[in-house]
Amino acid sequence: MSSTRRPHQGPTVPQSSIQRRFGLADEMWEKLAPLLAEDGITEDGPPVPLTELQAAFDRAVERYNMEQFTAVGAEREAAAEVLRKATLAVAANHPAVLRNLLGTVEPEVSEQSPATVAGCTGMALGLLDGWLTERDPQVPKGLAVRAPRIVPARWTRWPGAQPAGDVLPLARKGRALSSVMTLIKRHQGGFNVFNGCVLALGVTCEFWATYADEDLDALTARVIR
């Protein structure tokens, strides 16, 4: 059986360009398009190899995901307020109060809740990265070595106990925030990780107050912002 391929014809490299296709939601396109444009990939741009296109999509999705966990302005102020109250609830050993508080936080910004689950999660993980590596200049020397490495027994039944147990060692390496998507996949959802990182933050801040002999209210107001 003879081949239909022309002699000396080299291998072809698939080329593609960004196009609107059925199944790609306009909303997601609008979110990713500016990030893809940073890589020089636009709807009306020249074709690019599929491997480059996939790599650009992967980078755009990663950047988009991380942006969702970066609260700024009023959203960060609202997230900080939630985390301060959550820390006090953890220290007071009031899971019902903590559950009710976290239940008011919405997936997206709303009139009822300017704080978001992703914004609070990202802020908590970022703070822990800074505290448990002592990169944050406010952290007293030696805190990272002595801070709790596991979830206290009284909180082991908390829905976020297992995620918190993963967050604490990651934060000691400064990798809790960068590992957020891995944590979400491992613990089957962002809300579970939200519960976990809030617990990890509260436990660490509670220890900090004891370690530095500082009033917890004053400490949370100073360092959770």
Describe this structure in words.
The chain has 225 residues and is an all-alpha fold. The protein folds into two domains: 16-68, no CATH class; 73-223, no CATH class. It is built from ten helices and two strands, in the order βαβααααααααα. The protein has helices spanning 26-37, 50-68, 73-91, 95-103, 117-132, 143-146, 161-172, 180-186, 190-211, 216-223, and strands spanning 15-16, 48-49. Helix 1 crosses helix 2, helix 5 packs across helix 7 and helix 8 (180-186) packs across helix 9 (190-211). The model is unreliable at 1-24 (pLDDT under 50).
Structural class: mainly alpha
Taken from the alpha-carbon principal axes, the silhouette is elongated
**Count of structural domains:** 2
In spatial order, strands of the major sheet run 1-2
* Residues in helices, as a percent range: 55-70%
Mean pLDDT: 84
Helix and strand sequence: EHEHHHHHHHHH
Oligomeric state, counting identical vs distinct chains: single chain
Low-confidence parts: 1-24
Computed Rg: 23 Å
Distance from N terminus to C terminus (CA atoms, Å) equals 73 Å
DSSP helical segment count: 10
Please report the total strand number as a whole number: 2
Q: Which sheet architecture does the biggest sheet show? A: 2 strands, antiparallel
Strand content: under 5%
Q: Tags for this entry?
A:
225 residues, mainly alpha, 2 domains, two-stranded antiparallel ribbon, 57% helix, elongated, disordered N terminus
